[in-house]
Design a protein that fits this description.
Elements (H helix, E strand, L loop, with lengths): L4 H10 L6 H14 L4 H8 L6 H20 L15 H19 L10 H14 L7 H22 L7
Length: 166
């Protein structure tokens, strides 16, 4: 399944889940980085139910794609954001949504793992971005997305092998 911004938006809408595609992707990325891959936990983190087969299919496909990209370690991971045809103002808000979702997913139940100071700093920065207001220009947006890509890869790499159930 090809997971896109639009396919994610449609699955969320059909399941009546009040998350943006970016926030949902952030939640799933946080779960993958935290080592949570159990189907029920993934669906519950999005606010879906067992009856939401389309949402479940999109969520599990997204988690599989995220894990595959992050396992490669070649920085092919990208936060799910609206494409460049959408004004920077809306994409800035989507970055905040994604960061809010990531911090939520990463902080899901379970034993916290010890992290290096660099990983703690990345997590703290993502948390700060989740609280941000306002918007940024195109150049700053590009830098923030690049920082998120590196930070997520670092957090994933530190937690690799720690797959756990919620």
């Amino acid at each position: 399944m090809d997971v896109t911004f639009d396919s994610t938006a449609l699955a969320l809408e059909r399941a009546a889940v009040a998350l943006s595609p970016s926030e949902a992707h952030g939640i799933l990325t946080g779960l993958v980085c935290a080592g949570i891959r159990e189907d029920a936990a993934v669906l519950a983190a999005l606010g879906g139910s067992d009856d939401d087969s389309e949402l479940q299919e999109v969520a599990l496909a997204t988690c599989a794609e995220l894990a595959a990209r992050l396992d490669e370690g070649d920085f092919t991971f990208m936060p799910l954001l609206p494409d460049e045809t959408v004004p920077a103002v809306q994409r800035s808000r989507a970055v905040v949504d994604w960061c809010r979702g990531f911090t939520s997913g990463f902080a899901s139940p379970g034993e916290p793992t010890a992290r290096t100071p660099l990983a703690d700093e990345a997590l703290s920065d993502i948390h700060e971005l989740a609280q941000a207001g306002g918007t940024v220009n195109e150049d700053d947006l590009t830098e923030i997305v690049e920082y998120l890509r590196v930070g997520v890869q670092l957090l994933y790499d530190e937690g690799r092998g720690g797959v756990r159930d919620a």
